[in-house]
Amino acid sequence: MLRIWSRFMLIAFAFGAFCAHRSLACSCGTLSGRPGNCSDLKVTGPSFIGTVIDIQNPPDERRGADQSGLSRYRFRVDENIDGFDEKEVDVYSGRGSADCSYHFQMGESYFVTPFKGTAGLMALYGAEPGRLMAGICTETQPAASAQALLAELRARKRGATIEGVLRTKQQPDEYDHGMPNITVELRGSDNTFSSKTDIDGVYRITGVPPGEYQFAVKLPPNFPRLESKPGDISSITIADQACHARDINALAAARVAP
User: Fold this and answer.
1) Other C-beta atoms within 10 Å of 13: how many?
2) What are phi and psi of 149, to 5 degrees?
3) Number of helices and strands in the chain (H, E)
4) What CATH number matches the domain at 159-249, 3.40.50.150, 1.10.645.10, 3.40.525.10, 2.60.40.1120?
5) Is 45 exposed, middle or buried (0-12, 13-18, 19+ CB in 10 A)?
6) What is the DSSP code (8-state) at residue 166?
7) Per-residue model confidence (pLDDT) at position 258
8) From the CA atom positions of the chain, what is the Rg in Å?
9) pLDDT confidence of residue 240
């Protein structure tokens, strides 16, 4: 993941550095093929929540100012989300307004997803490769705005997330046929996890340990099931701290008009 981001950021930073004298805005573009199927559990890689406690060579965004080199931001690591056991860590970013750099503020708290700068990227700034870099094209953002994402990532540390839609049709249409307020269970050899579907028929189960599980749906007693489709449904293999998307089709039996 870090390799993908660093290659992408090299292009973005290089474009910004080349065009900075024209005062162009940074353009992050879109990365395709991001891993994971769960729409709202974003892949972040190594990350932490930290507070800026020192800044060296801060950005100078005045028109015509020298924006060469890197700013160094020292963070106090307040919470290790993934891969940061240190108490303090240095993160670098550009000093311009068109190089996709992130300009952190002293004393503020951030969710930071840094990546290691490649030799090509760091050469643009006259710095040695391998430094931890940050930019606006990653999930880095103020901690206050990252609460929903952080809640998901913390749940992911406790185990896997499984989510999907319970429908009465195999394929969604303009009505989607979602079934609200229905209990979906995930049954393992030692534990059973459950969740109720929301108004759109969406269920989500978090904190599931790795292993083999069976789905079960507690359908209403008067639900007209197909004979070949009981309430128990397919099995799933859960990987550690992954996010699995699995829609469930209840498949109601068709009613014959009188």
Assistant:
1) 28
2) -65, -40
3) 3, 15
4) 2.60.40.1120
5) middle
6) E
7) 39
8) 24
9) 74
